[in-house]
Amino acid sequence: MAPSYLGPCLLLLSTTTVVSSRNCLNPDTAQACSDIASLSKIEVRIPRYIQAGDTADLICSYYLDSHNLYSVKWYKGHHEFYRYTPNEKPPVKVFPLTGMKINMTASDHVRVVLESVSTKLTGTYLCEVTVAPTFFALAETANMTVIDFPAEGPVINVEQKQFQVGETAHLSCSVHRSSPPSLLSWYINDEPANEIYVSRIFEPGPHSIHGKNLAEDLQSIELSFPVTTSHFDNNKVRLECVATIAGLYWKTADVTLIQEHPKLLPSKDGPPDTPVSGVQPICTSQSCLRLNLPMILIIYNFVL
After folding, report:
1. pLDDT tens digits, residue range 28-43?
2. Where are the beta strands (DSSP E) in 189-291?
3. Is the pTM of this model over 0.70?
């Protein structure tokens, strides 16, 4: 008989009666409720996050009280992949999913060991415990996420590193595609960049980064912001790109931009006694004196 689920974590099953907390006052189900209460201690412990290639321990602990164990079944989603039935020969049967490697030696009625996990094994896992002779069953679920970290940390690309106040700086930060995807963020002088200056992009491969040809897909985040005086500290502004995954992966890349001050052009007008380039003086001081001597004499006679 297929189990009937009565909640997000627990199921209750009988060959004749499905029992819920709402009908425990019914005399016909009171005994079933009592039996269920003694079987209510079940706990599933699996890694919430695990790196691809590692070994995952799936633990299903339970308290039978006066009941006898009939079977323990493990599901990923709706697919049963492991079954332990103590009264059958052999007691263990497996129905592994594609890419699932079960360590039969280390697995038993409480524990299932998955080796070299891949991202395909990310999902919801359920452990179902059935007891005899009532054939009541309890089950609990837990989620596991298999993380495939990027091969390398983030890389920043910027065309120039010197900017004047008022110019717009354009930068991009890329990281290899991962599962789940990395969360990319920009920081300006250790402060989160305003989202209006940020855009996130997915770039299918192939790519070339710093002269390396890459076939993998990339995640990128771009930053385009107007440079202001407040950005510079000692003529420098520090930009940082951070890549994180579920708190287990944290890589950064940073670059420093330098403030470029406007260059002063030389004045076209030289000093007062310096002739303008390309213009010759009308006369030297001696020739001018000879030319103006008659005028000086006229003025002198007039004064007298």
Report:
1. 655 556 656 655 578 9
2. 191-192, 198-203, 207-209, 212-214, 218-226, 236-245, 249-259
3. no
